[in-house]
Amino acid sequence: MSVQPGSVQRINTPTRRDVLKAAMDGMIATLWGGSPAYAEEERMTTTTKSYALPSVLTYDDVRAVSPALEHYTKVALLDGLWQRPELSPRDRSIVTVAALIARIQTIEMPYHFALAINNDVKPSELSEIITHLAFYSGWANAMSAVAVAKDIFHQRGIGIDQLPPAKDKLLTLNEEAERQRAEGNASERQLWRHLSGARAEYDRSSVPRSLASLRSRAS
Hints:
InterPro entries: 4CMD/NDH-1_regulator, AhpD-like, CMD-like, TAT_signal. By secondary structure, the protein is mainly α.
């Protein structure tokens, strides 16, 4: 491309609005499955299962940036913390999955969602964890987890018939327990009124005594 002498070449610099729009488009595409499929080059665990765990990062990826972090991931974390007997692998998966959703740590979700199922966390339980945390950690947190879990469910052949329904039968009301609770509340209110009355009576009687004591000292 040639430029005439004395002319000014205009460079189309993207505006802040263009940059923000492109970023939002990318986020939406990622959330709804527009991103490339997860790499399955190497599993970051030793497992006897026949299927590969989907993961964004492999040990090779981590080693290329931080060999020390790869070492700590293998030795201190997976072969150390995860092997402690104080919590079962299933319980550790539930805790870890909940923490990742609460903090929207999507880079680790594919690996740990699949690991949770391997550790005997039922798909219905994983589904319910996501629903539960929508109310406690945020709707966007749960939607980010859905975007990851849908691929794992599809890979494992997990259908909607294996997941908790939107509506379920309510528990039968225990009328006897409700009656006892109502009686307990009534007794509490009666006791509170008695204590309040006694305190008011004490306050009324204590004022004259205090005045009499002051007059006695003054004389």
